[in-house]
TrEMBL record:
Pfam families: DUF903 (PF06004). Residues 1-21 form the signal peptide. The lineage of its organism: Bacteria, Pseudomonadati, Thermodesulfobacteriota, Desulfovibrionia, Desulfovibrionales. This is Lipoprotein YgdI/YgdR-like SH3-like domain-containing protein. PROSITE patterns: PROKAR_LIPOPROTEIN. InterPro entries: LSM_dom_sf (IPR010920), YgdI/YgdR-like (IPR010305), YgdI/YgdR-like_SH3-like (IPR047807). It comes from Nitratidesulfovibrio vulgaris (strain DP4) (Desulfovibrio vulgaris).
Length: 78
């Protein structure tokens, strides 16, 4: 009985950690008006003062795109 309880607890912990890991890994693909493609490793942030979107790409570099140049933005679902 104790072994079953321990196994069930272990499975619940694995399930919770998998779900939490999946929640933090949102990626977005952004297409600009000149058909440039960028992949953001998190939701891009809109800066209303400068009217730009900023995000970190997959290499960790900071990218800033003017809102007027953005054609499309979609979340990538794994």
């Amino acid at each position: 009985m104790m072994q079953r309880h321990l196994c069930l607890t272990f499975l619940v912990l694995i399930l919770c950690s998998t779900l939490l890991a999946g929640c933090g890994s949102n990626r977005y693909v952004l297409v600009t008006s000149d058909y440039g493609i960028h992949v953001a490793s998190g939701k891009p942030r809109l800066d209303p003062k400068n009217d730009t979107y900023s995000f970190r790409d997959e290499t960790g570099s900071e990218v800033v795109i003017p809102r007027a140049d953005l054609k499309q933005m979609r979340e990538i679902r794994d």
